[in-house]
Amino acid sequence: AVSTTGIKRLLSTPIDYWAHSPLNPQSQYLPKKSTSALAKGSAFHCLLLEPHEFANRFQIKEGVQSSKVPGFVGGGELNEMMAAVQALRDLPTVSQLFTDGEAEVTMVWKDKETGVMCRCRHDYFRQKHAMTVDYKTIADITERDIDRAIVKYGYYIQAAFYLDGMKALGLGDHQDFVFVFQQRDYPHKVYATRYRDWE
Q1: Among 127, 121, 118, which Cα is nearest to 106's?
Q2: Pairing outcome for strands 131-138 and 117-126
Q3: pLDDT in tens, 94-143
């Protein structure tokens, strides 16, 4: 099924999409890209949304500030991440966005116009509130940095795609899509914005 990542690769060139497609037998030989920022973002994400899974996915290297080894988190990094999660939890209007719902919800649907199967994975889906919440870590919480991230990483594509999917699955035409951006480093500032506010 086509995902947001696949769409962004198709918008680059079809050959990029095919190169990474699981249908392409050569894709298994591609090197797995991983940066310390991505790894740290993944750990932040897990600690916030699925804290009960953190110990299963990551090992702590005590006495080390940070680790570049996949699946490992430095003791210093862990303290930073816990402080960041607490900073978010201390904001009632933001922390409530991660309540009364489910983390890591996968949805699959068929696009009516093309017949293509599509899929997406929600960070946090609040079905009762007609809302999906997506958590992003970012270098700094400034309007300029957020605007750049939205364009650079195609977050507007993600939001539109997810909303189309929810509509296709009969979950309503008036869903809310909220991005929660959090600064990776101290003081771990937080900014939440709805997708429709960009339009």
Answers
A1: 121
A2: antiparallel
A3: 999 999 999 999 999 999 999 999 999 999 999 999 999 999 988 899 98
pLDDT at 68: 80
From CA 28, how far away is CA 8, in angstroms rounded?
Answer: 20
Rounded CA separation 140/145 (Å): 6
pLDDT band at 82 (very low <50, low <70, confident <90, very high): very high
3-state secondary structure the chain: CECHHHHHHHHHCHHHHHHHCCCCHHHHHCCCCCCHHHHHHHHHHHHHHCHHHHHHHCEEECCCCCCCCCCEEEHHHHHHHHHHHHHHHCCHHHHHHHCCCEEEEEEEEECCCCCCEEEEEEEEEEHHHCEEEEEEEECCCCHHHHHHHHHHCCHHHHHHHHHHHHHHCCCCCCCEEEEEEEECCCCCCEEEEEHHHHC
End-to-end Cα spacing for the chain: 27
85 pLDDT above the threshold of 90: yes
The pTM assigned to this predicted structure is 0.86
